[in-house]
Specification:
Layout (H helix, E strand, L loop, with lengths): L1 E2 L15 H15 L6 E7 L5 H14 L4 E5 L18 H7 L3 H9 L9 E2 L17 E2 L5 E5 L14 E6 L2 H12 L2 H22 L7 E4 L7 E4 L2
């Protein structure tokens, strides 16, 4: 069974693409399952529009098919509310990196209770990024062998990095990130944010954290049909 967030910010699970992609997903899922029967917390990070949410959905399907319950979450559901945005800069690249996400909430509601020694009472959504409704009181019970699978940018920041049991980086170049983001968002004004906000924020993250040094696996996801493992466990 796959338990999903109540957030309205949802993307569908993509249809199977190619045997090559399926094989890679099976390989990664199998490696995660070798970590043991206790609760696990897995993060999928990468540049904006690297394909994190789709990959997370596909990976959840494989882990669930192997018999482990899965909880799906995204860091986008744990941002600070827009009603407080007048208190800080969230519009520039550096401001977005430093102020958009509520890491104490991620820790308290999601990662600590979803860990092997946590309570198991997990909130898969803090504040809905579209409606701004607070869903932090909506709890999902994580079984003793559940896999919590979370996608999102900046997942390996020091505020939360130590909670992960397995770390995945989806590698795409900045040009692919901007192109995919623009195609996904449709609105030209929203698409422009990839160049003026999101990519500059990623540059701060890459410079300060160097997240690739922390990950267990790097996947070249530029070709969605034929992703490749470029660094393995």
């Amino acid at each position: 069974m796959i338990h999903r967030s109540v957030s309205t910010w949802q993307q569908p699970t993509p249809a199977p693409r190619t045997p090559e992609r399926s094989a890679l997903l099976e390989t990664v899922a199998g490696e995660i399952l070798t970590l043991g029967p206790a609760r696990l917390r897995v993060a999928v990070d990468g540049l904006t529009a690297a394909g994190k949410t789709s990959f997370g959905h596909e990976l959840a399907e494989r882990i669930s098919a192997a018999g482990r319950p899965v909880l799906r979450a995204t860091l986008d559901d744990f941002k600070n509310p827009w009603r407080e945005s007048h208190l800080y800069d969230r519009l520039s690249g550096e401001g977005f990196y430093r102020n958009a996400f509520n890491y104490p909430s991620v820790t308290e509601l999601l990662l600590e209770p979803g860990g092997p020694s946590g309570s198991g009472e997990v909130a898969l959504c803090g504040i809905d990024p579209l409606t701004q409704i607070d869903h932090s009181a909506v709890k999902t019970r994580a079984a003793a062998d559940a896999v919590l699978l979370v996608d999102g940018v900046f997942a390996f920041r020091p505020e939360i990095n130590h909670h992960w049991d397995f770390r995945i980086w989806l590698d795409v170049d900045p040009e692919t990130s901007i192109k995919r983001g623009a195609a996904r968002d449709h609105d030209p004004e929203d698409a422009a944010l990839h160049e003026t906000r999101y990519l500059p924020a990623e540059r701060v993250y890459l410079a300060e954290v160097d997240p690739l040094r922390l990950v267990d696996v790097v996947i070249d996801n530029r070709d969605l049909d034929r992703p490749t493992l470029t660094r393995t466990w």
